[in-house]
Design brief:
420 residues, 12 strands
Length: 420
């Protein structure tokens, strides 16, 4: 009988406790590996979501809030930019991209983004990855709408479908807008369906600014007691407001100077989206370290679980150890048999943990893409997996030293006395 056969039989005899300890090791190793894999993946995903916009101007409370609301559609912006200010910014510099947007309406909780046709030509949802249409085209007149891939998938909307939007924020993360209402008088037609981009834009609908402004003007006429079908001819500068502007400069040296110049205007908020994403992850980095520390603590606790399980079992196994000694096994062999058992538990547990991590990351990535339109692509780095598996196995081996010493010191004469 080989040493490995003896170890495997010993584990099989204590199958229930072995399975529990292996599961704990697998969970702790998988958790640690998942956190290591996700540490940079999340930041890369948010950087991906900012697209090729170099500047974002809004009237949100801070640059970070501006980016979260304007590019990730976290909440509808509260303060609009009027037409006079918009034209002032437009004429202040020869921008290579100037794309105004109005965010605030929704369709079945999906944000409706009112913008200009240049949104599909100048702006890229992911840097160096322009828009692609799975079907149809961009809008070119009022009340035409282009829908993101996630909207098409989750709502079943197809080319030529008709829909009406909720004017107002509707279901916001900050609570429902009591003024939100459906404008059934104005029906939109789906003219384009976008291919997936792996960004929050997959969960949005896009239409022209006039359509959004007409809904605002309709409410203005109703408040005045006038009931009519509003057209673009009825719009005033009061109606022509936006919530943000995406911009690019011709040359990179101009970016800092234009950013500083716009910041001096206290009536607007100016953000460099890429910088704000980095700032966001700087803010949450302490939480990241906390999760990492918790994962390491879980791995250490699994080593203690191996130690306790094997020490507790030694009371039942001393007779088996004594028999092995009588059959010719040396003290050193007994020591290495028990140590091999604990090491094998760590090795099996860490291998299962790596597999669990790979499966969990796959499903988490799919869920984040479908639920939030964020493409988090964590890489299960082979080097990290090997390091985590080796560290977990080494801890398990270390935990087996104490029970191995107990087995080594087992008295043959004492534990071969007749039972009863």
């Amino acid at each position: 009988m080989t040493d490995l056969t003896i170890v495997l039989r010993s584990l099989r005899i204590r199958a229930a406790s072995t399975a529990i300890v292996v599961a704990l090791v697998a969970i702790s190793a998988g958790l640690l590996l998942a956190i290591l894999s996700l540490r940079t993946a999340g930041e890369r995903a948010f950087e991906r979501g900012t697209g090729n916009a170099q500047l974002l101007v809004s009237r949100d409370g801070s640059p970070l809030v501006s980016v979260l609301n304007g590019l990730f559609y976290a909440n509808p912006p509260k303060a609009p930019i009027d037409q006079a200010k918009l034209e002032s910014i437009r004429s202040s510099f020869p921008w290579t991209m100037f794309v105004p947007m109005a965010v605030g309406d929704n369709y079945r909780s999906f944000p409706v983004v009112a913008t200009v046709p240049a949104f599909f030509t100048a702006f890229e949802p992911v840097a160096n990855e322009p828009w692609k249409f799975a079907e149809g085209r961009a809008f070119d007149r009022s009340f035409e709408v282009v829908i993101g891939s996630a909207v098409a998938r989750e709502t079943g909307l197809r080319m030529g479908a008709k829909l009406v939007v909720t004017h107002g924020s509707g279901k916001s993360r900050e609570g429902a807008d009591e003024h939100a209402h459906v404008h059934e008088e104005y029906e939109y037609t789906v003219v384009g369906i976008l291919e997936p981009t792996g960004s929050p834009h997959d969960r949005a609908l896009f239409t022209d600014l006039d359509s959004c402004w007409i809904l605002h003007a309709h409410d203005r006429f109703e408040r005045a007691g006038t009931h009519k079908t509003v057209t673009a001819a009825d719009l005033t500068d009061e109606d022509r407001v936006v919530t943000g502007v995406l911009m690019r400069v011709p040359r990179m040296p101009s970016l800092v100077s234009e950013y500083d110049r716009l910041r001096r205007d206290g009536s607007i908020t100016v953000a460099i989206p890429a910088n704000e994403v980095q700032r966001l992850f700087t803010i949450v980095s302490s939480i990241d370290v906390l999760f990492l520390a918790m994962a390491v603590a879980t791995v250490v606790s699994s080593a203690f679980a191996i130690l306790l399980a094997m020490v507790n079992s030694m009371g039942e196994r001393r007779r088996q150890v004594a028999i092995l000694r009588v059959l010719g096994a040396s003290k050193a062999r007994i020591f290495w048999l028990v140590l091999t058992e604990s090491t094998l538990i760590g090795l099996i547990g860490s291998a299962i943990g790596v597999l669990m991590c790979a499966i969990a990351l796959f499903f988490a990535t799919a869920w984040m893409r479908e639920a939030h339109g964020i493409a988090i692509a964590p890489e299960l780095d082979a080097r990290s997996a090997i390091i985590v598996a080796m560290a977990t196995t080494a801890l398990a081996a270390l935990a087996g030293v104490v029970p191995s010493l107990l087995a080594y010191r087992t008295s043959v004469a004492k534990h071969l006395r007749p039972i009863g």
